[in-house]
Amino acid sequence: xxxxxxxxxxxxxxxxxxxxxxxxxxxxxxxxxxxxxxxxxxxxxxxxxxxxxxxxxxxxxxxxxxxxxxxxxxxxxxxxxxxxxxxxxxxxxxxxxxxxxxxxxxxxxxxxxxxxxxxxxxxxxxxxxxxxxxxxxxxxxxxxxxxxxxxxxxxxxxxxxxxxxxxxxxxxxxxxxxxxxxxxxxxxxxxxxxxxxxxxxxxxxxxxxxxxxxxxxxxxxxxxxxxxxxxxxxx
Length: 235
What we know:
By secondary structure, this protein is α+β, with helices and mostly antiparallel strands.
């Protein structure tokens, strides 16, 4: 493209005005760019600091959260009424133990009133499920996606649902549970007090705690890509 003869380019000197020379084109352009850059740098806020991810809650067994709240009911004479499903509800997230507040996303509770002809006496049976936020809870270093608590006056079955297939993590879980068992044998409240050796079966493996229950590890029945760690008892 040809430049007009009377249009001064970069480095040319424009016509004198009033005895003084005009500012050369390059110098004028550089001055404008410098002013714009300076203004932009002052207007832009500093970058926000990166937020570190919350550390995962590390579980080792016998450390299940409490997911259910019981609201007792009394009659007009102040006598405490038997427990019924209408008195049972899932806890709100802000009611959970501080260690679990950040980890639990939501809670679902099912409750059945069992009459005397079914259970031998009136009682309730509950199933409470805590759905966990991804990556915030681990058992033996393995991601936990759900907590399931099944309870009544005659049995209890507390489970961690691990997000790995049994075939992949079975051996690691066996070592972890046996090691943890040995470190707690002196604890009179520990679930397992006798041997710490797990027994393998076609369904999985278990560690007997006595005539009432123990620890069971097996594939999740409806999803073999996940594994159940359970602490259970029955009267």
